[in-house]
């Protein structure tokens, strides 16, 4: 059964939520039965502000925010801003904008890991006092070399048995800035023989004389991810800390820190990260595409970023519905990008108003139509939604149709315009082709027709049927526009296959963007505002570009074609 917008707008699973819990909801409901977290449910989304959010992050947001909404608990947007060298305020701002757009809600609960640096430092001091952490003088290289292998235990650092006093002294001097970058680290004292590498005395603080976008130069030591993340969750009293599968082997460490400190401990739960075909999802690679100008920016409509998808014409509802459809599981898999496109088609089919637009115009003159006359004809705004009503669209003697809606030598099954054939002009009249002219180069430049005045509105009183209906735009009234057609950014299904030695950029699709100028649009599109989405009849869904469009030079992006053209090509 089709979902109403209300059903998908709250981000909760629709259908039969109580029967079809995902495995995380199952854990939460079990916890609520045993009162593990006093029946509280409190989730978070913890991005590192080192890039723009992508569709993979959308999955995590929909999951965490959706769970909080479903169980009536708070949801924290928390910046995991513990690495000053890669993080920027620009990213923080874009992330807030994207989360608010995707959830449709102003986010009141915004937190920063950097606000906890003081508390994290005191916790580290506590750990030292308990004899569970030590200052290590080995270089990063030496630490790596002494980690051991899967079969050989690591070697203990010569600094491992330093006294608590010496550790406290050295750690405070690390903090005071006495040592250069990389000279010392603080390491947890766990087990160099653990089968889990993460437990082999992991580094929890490193020296980094770098300015932080929020704390400035207050700190020259920064906490490592594993140490910081659990503390952030604990400080915020998160109940269920959902992260992607690669953190499964970090969970024992997550637990170890919080147990050793004797502080509140959330439950870490791992789920499969989203991978989509024909794109890359790592922020590092997306940054490369931006920096090296393979795309026009993070919000290039071909990017899998949330801002790129938004600019392309995606709705938050479509992305949420996509996330709902793919679900949450414990094993990694690659999702076909067609599923994302289908979610958008389904949404825009219901919500986008129809307009006529001719992308590759061919002039048609209707010889028996009165010169200088204009008629306003009724056109349905959205057959899927009667409440959208109708609009009036002008018709006149000279119109444009799509080039490929005319063929000189039409095969039998060709139902569009051809010499001697009659077609219906949508919402207008039946016309019959009487001839055409070519330019010196042999290109067809003009088609001539006659119309049947009795067929106004597109039906014939004598019951005469025509097989084809084509769209058109009145030449005199048309709005000239640029239209950008997008295709997949990569030609290879898995462009960053780790087993492929070639650089992922080798597989960039040279035809991922086609720019059409001189397109002829129905004049009512003059009133569109950036971000507005329409179905151009028979062509696809389009969105007025929010960056490059202006009233004197409208630019429309194709969000998605009407049907999946790749399936046809692949013979699926
Ligand atoms: P990348 O590998 O692209 O740099 P990341 O995991 O380092 O991404 P973070 O900013 O740390 O990016 O991610 C914030 C949250 O989003 C984390 O909880 C992470 O698990 C989740 N996340 C990131 N990528 C995906 C994905 N592809 N699918 C689902 N969740 C994701
Ligand atoms: Mg990360």
Strand order of the largest sheet: 12-25-26-27-23-24-13
- What helical percentage do the residues reach? 25-40%
How many beta-strand segments?
Answer: 27
Fraction in beta strands = 15-25%
Major β-sheet annotation: 7 strands, mixed
Cofactors, ions, other ligands: adenosine-5'-triphosphate, magnesium ion
Distance between the termini: 25 Å
Radius of gyration: 30 Å
Question: Roughly what is the average pLDDT, rounded to an integer?
Answer: 94
Shape descriptor: elongated
The total of helices stands at 14
**Spans with pLDDT under 50 lasting ≥5 residues?**
1-18
SS-based class: alpha/beta
What would you say this structure looks like, in words?
By secondary structure, this protein is an alpha/beta fold. It has 14 helices and 27 strands. A seven-stranded mixed sheet has the order 12-25-26-27-23-24-13. Strand 8 (240-244), helix 9 (251-261) and strand 9 form a beta-alpha-beta unit. It is elongated, with a radius of gyration of 30 Å. The chain starts with a helix and ends with a helix. The model is unreliable at 1-18 (pLDDT under 50). Bound molecules: adenosine-5'-triphosphate and magnesium ion (MG). Adenosine-5'-triphosphate binds at residues 46-48, 56-57, 59-60, 243-244, 273-274, 281-283.
List the helices and strands and how they pair.
Blueprint: H1 5-9, H2 23-34, E1 43-45, H3 55-70, E2 75-79, H4 89-103, E3 110-112, H5 117-129, E4 133-136, H6 140-145, H7 164-176, E5 185-188, E6 203-207, E7 221-223, H8 225-235, E8 240-244, H9 251-261, E9 267-271, E10 274-276, H10 283-291, H11 306-312, H12 316-326, E11 333-335, H13 337-351, E12 353-355, E13 357-358, E14 361-366, E15 375-380, E16 390-395, E17 398-402, E18 422-425, E19 430-438, E20 444-452, E21 469-470, E22 473-474, E23 479-486, E24 513-521, E25 533-536, E26 540-544, E27 555-561, H14 565-569
Helix pairs in contact: 3-12, 8-9, 12-13
Bound molecules: adenosine-5'-triphosphate and magnesium ion.
Adenosine-5'-triphosphate binds next to helix 3 and strand 8.
């Amino acid at each position: 059964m089709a979902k109403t917008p209300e059903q998908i707008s709250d981000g909760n699973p629709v259908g039969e939520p109580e029967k079809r819990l995902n495995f995380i909801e199952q854990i939460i409901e079990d916890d609520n039965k045993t009162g593990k977290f006093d029946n509280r449910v409190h989730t978070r989304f913890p991005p590192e502000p080192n890039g723009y959010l992508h569709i993979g992050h959308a999955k995590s947001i929909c999951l965490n925010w959706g769970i909080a909404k479903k169980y009536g608990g708070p949801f924290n947007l928390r910046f995991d801003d513990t690495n000053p060298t890669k993080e920027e305020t620009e990213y923080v701002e874009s992330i807030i904008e994207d989360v608010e757009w995707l959830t449709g809600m102003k986010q009141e609960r915004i937190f920063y890991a950097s606000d906890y640096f003081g508390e994290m430092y005191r916790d580290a001091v506590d750990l030292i006092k308990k004899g569970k952490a030590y200052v290590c003088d080995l270089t990063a290289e030496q630490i790596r070399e002494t980690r051991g292998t899967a079969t050989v235990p690591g070697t203990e650092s010569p600094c491992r048995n330093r006294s608590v006093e010496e550790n406290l002294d050295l750690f405070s001097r690390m903090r005071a800035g006495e040592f250069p970058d990389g000279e010392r680290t603080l390491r947890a004292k766990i087990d160099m023989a653990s089968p889990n590498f993460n437990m082999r005395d992991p580094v929890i603080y490193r020296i980094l004389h770098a300015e932080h976008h929020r704390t400035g130069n207050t700190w020259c030591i920064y906490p490592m991810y594993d140490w910081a993340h659990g503390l952030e969750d604990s400080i915020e009293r998160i109940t269920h800390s959902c992260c992607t599968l690669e953190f499964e082997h970090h969970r024992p460490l997550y637990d170890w820190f919080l147990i050793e400190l004797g502080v509140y401990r959330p439950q870490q739960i791992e789920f499969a990260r989203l991978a989509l075909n024909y794109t890359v999802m790592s922020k590092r690679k997306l940054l490369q595409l931006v920096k090296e100008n393979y795309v026009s920016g993070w919000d290039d409509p071909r990017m899998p970023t949330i801002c790129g998808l938004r600019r392309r014409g995606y709705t938050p509802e479509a992305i949420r519905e996509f996330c709902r459809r793919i679900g949450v599981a414990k094993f990694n898999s690659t999702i076909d990008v067609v599923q994302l496109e289908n979610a958008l088609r389904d949404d825009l089919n219901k919500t986008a108003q129809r307009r006529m637009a001719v992308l590759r115009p061919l002039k048609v003159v209707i010889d028996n139509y009165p010169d200088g006359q204009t008629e306003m004809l009724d056109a349905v705004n959205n057959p899927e939604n009667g409440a959208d009503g109708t609009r009036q669209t002008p018709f006149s003697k000279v119109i444009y149709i799509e080039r490929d809606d005319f063929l000189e030598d039409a095969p039998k099954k060709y139902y569009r315009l051809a010499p001697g054939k009659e077609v219906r002009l949508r919402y207008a009249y039946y016309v019959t082709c009487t001839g055409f002219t070519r330019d010196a180069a042999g290109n067809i430049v003009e088609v001539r027709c006659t119309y049947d005045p009795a067929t106004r509105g597109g039906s014939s009183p004598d019951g005469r049927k025509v097989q084809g209906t084509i769209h058109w735009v009145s030449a005199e009234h048309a709005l000239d526009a640029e239209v950008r057609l997008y295709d997949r950014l990569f030609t290879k299904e898995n462009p960053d296959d780790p087993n492929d030695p070639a650089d992922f950029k080798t597989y960039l699709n040279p035809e991922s963007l086609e720019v059409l100028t001189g397109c002829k649009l129905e004049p009512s599109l003059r009133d569109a505002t950036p971000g507005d989405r329409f179905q151009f009849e028979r062509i696809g869904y389009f969105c007025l570009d929010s960056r490059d469009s202006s009233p004197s030079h409208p630019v429309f992006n194709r969000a998605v074609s009407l049907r999946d053209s790749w399936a046809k090509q692949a013979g699926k």
